Amino acid sequence: MDSSANANRRLLHVTSQLPQAAAATAPVDYPMTHDQISSPKDTENFIDNKFTSSKATQWIDLHDPATNNLVTRVPQSTDAELRAAVESAQKAFPAWRATSLLSRQQIMFKFVHLIRENWDRLAASITLEQGKTMADARGDVLRGLQVAETTCGITTQLTGEVLEVSKDMETRTYKEPIGVTAAICPFSKCRSSTSSGSPIT
């Protein structure tokens, strides 16, 4: 058997392991083709548990790599909006810190359920914004799902530990939330090529 046949067999095997998307119970309300979006909506900030329109004066245009059509505009958020986001997180922190590990675990279980429930919607968004094929985008969602599922089982690693260092003496470690943090996540600007006007599905 040649290498290409082996590769195809591996691909089919991996695909067979992917959980099936839930049966559609309502009309699809997200783009499933590379057709031009008639009225692209600006991406909003999510602050204080709600989406809010940005007052930014500078925006980043996000284009569909397959057609170069505009998908959305992402705000270069203002200093005031950044401060509002940090203040909101600081306000929520005391209650979150007091939340038990098991309650946090339940939130992650719900998050995993939502990823599975919206598998194709997430994949379609990746395809539209990054130019990946639908199969490749579904694989990206799978990798994210695996991270979320791993988080559900991390509770035993957050309880701290006791270590006996000598006779009648022990050390104890505690793991506690440290508060509001920020991260800048770099991402490769390389994009997969797709044929112009090809359907997402």
Structure in a nutshell:
With 201 residues, this protein is of the alpha+beta class. The chain has helices at residues 3-17, 79-97, 101-117, 119-130, 134-152, and strands spanning 45-47, 50-52, 59-63, 70-75, 161-166, 169-173. α3 packs antiparallel against α5 and α4 crosses α5.
Distance between the termini: 30 Å
The Rg value, from CA coordinates, equals: 22 Å
Question: What is the oligomeric state here?
Answer: single chain
Count of extended strands: 6
Widest sheet, order of strands: 1-2
Reading the helices and strands in chain order gives HEEEEHHHHEE
Sheet having the most strands: 2 strands, antiparallel
Helix run count: 5
- Shape descriptor reads extended
Helix fraction by DSSP (H/I, runs of at least 4): 40-55%
- Low-confidence runs of at least 5 consecutive residues: 5-18, 21-25, 190-201
Average of per-residue pLDDT values: 81
Beta fraction: 5-15%
Give the helix/strand class: alpha+beta
Structure description:
The structure is a single chain. The protein is of the alpha+beta class and 201 residues long. Among the domains are: 35-98, no CATH class; 103-173. The protein is 41% helix and 14% strand. The protein has a two-stranded antiparallel ribbon. β5 and β6 form a beta hairpin. It starts with a helix and ends in a 28-residue tail after the last strand.
